[in-house]
Amino acid sequence: MATREGSLETPTRYPIDWKKIDFYNEASLQNEMERIFDICHGCRRCVNLCTAFPRLFDLIDEGTTGELDGVDKNRFWEIVDRCFLCDMCFMTKCPYVPPHEWNVDFPHLMLRAKAVQFKTKGAGFRDKLLSNTDQVGKLATTPGIAQSVNALNKTPAVRKFLDSTLGIHADRKLPEYTTRKFRSNAATVDHFTVKNGERTRGKVAIYATCYINYNEPGIGHDLLKILEHNEIPTTLVIKEACCGMPKLELGDLETVEALKNENIAHLLKLAQDGYAILSAIPSCTLMYKQELPLLFPDDEAVQAVASAMFDPFEYLMLRHQDQLLKTDFKTTLGKVAYHIPCHQRVQNIGKKTRDVLQLIPDTEISIVERCSGHDGTWGVKSEYFDDSMKIGRPVFRQMAASQPDYISSDCPIAARHIEQGMGTDNAARKIHPLSLLRMAYNGHSGNEQQSGLSNNSANEKTD
Prior knowledge:
Elements: H1 26-43, H2 52-61, H3 76-82, H4 88-93, H5 106-121, H6 125-131, H7 133-140, H8 145-152, H9 156-165, H10 182-185, E1 204-206, H11 210-214, H12 217-229, E2 234-236, H13 245-250, H14 253-272, E3 276-278, H15 282-295, H16 300-308, E4 309-310, H17 312-321, E5 334-339, H18 342-345, H19 352-357, E6 363-368, H20 385-401, E7 406-409, H21 412-422, E8 429-430, H22 433-442
Parallel strand pairs: 1-2, 1-3, 3-4, 5-6, 5-7, 7-8
């Protein structure tokens, strides 16, 4: 029995022993699920976070005993399938996370269950397709193909066919693919003098990510322009593959390791050469800062890369604290409704995007700290689309409440989901925070056509 109720100590994440034989032992997994599910049943504090916990509690309440022992254990997988590893239960709600003696890490339990499921049953064609972001991106951005893919994704008949055959929901707004990939057109500038700060390295390497490279390269170009404006020398990671987050969410840990092996050598050299490594997609940043170090705790290269990896606004705010960030803004932003994505919150860096944007005079930032409900591929799937919109409803309402000029999120997928959920009455423009910052530096007014911004990826080369 626990000697204390709950804990006020800082949550602690333990390494994931995924290479041990017992990790994939289904009986052992079943016992651990029963242990943690019973603790969750006695608490129920996380009922409003997602649909995984309501499903667990419904199964218990509708069971033969009203307790966990009345639930058919085969139905535990209904809970696993509804968890999209946002980590919010661990970070914001659960009083029994480590170092509490009950050692409740619900997301990592779900990751273990997904890994066991993948090991024993594999994954269907749709899930493999959606998690192969790099390969799909390379194919979809081929000139001639990108235009066709984008057109087909907007055709109702095609979307209904994809819904019925692949299980990709017909109503989900999908990101477009660009014919001008970020890495092929990125204008890095490396001639500035390196100015190291007390908290920051004075030169930056950009890890592009699949999404920036294939879907919204404007975000990456805006980041480069911000760094150039601040006279920070930049380069691109010489070669990169997917960070592995989509495969992690699928439970395909062996492919995660293969992608880690493909990426880490290039990133390690940059870390050793004194670069801060920036990734503009929170999930990718989190993968290198937390997930890989927990999966490979004895890999010194992984740990070194984690220490050099930064969220862009984390880095920019640290530059400001080092008195090395320019604040010569030429325009205000008005009202910005800003959503903090889960995978940025889990990094424990604070509200750095908000802090930087608030440096812009006469700019009002309203913050929404709640999961939008999309998750990388989860909200695309037909069986979870309605749940994703239900989870997002409080976010949609809060984002609209201030009648903002702009809606923005560090996660562009979450931003698109929020825009869709806010509906056609929404008059605010969806623009990425990096694009808003570049706009403030450049002096674009809110009514001008912003060329080169993240939601106008056809104009990557403009100023």
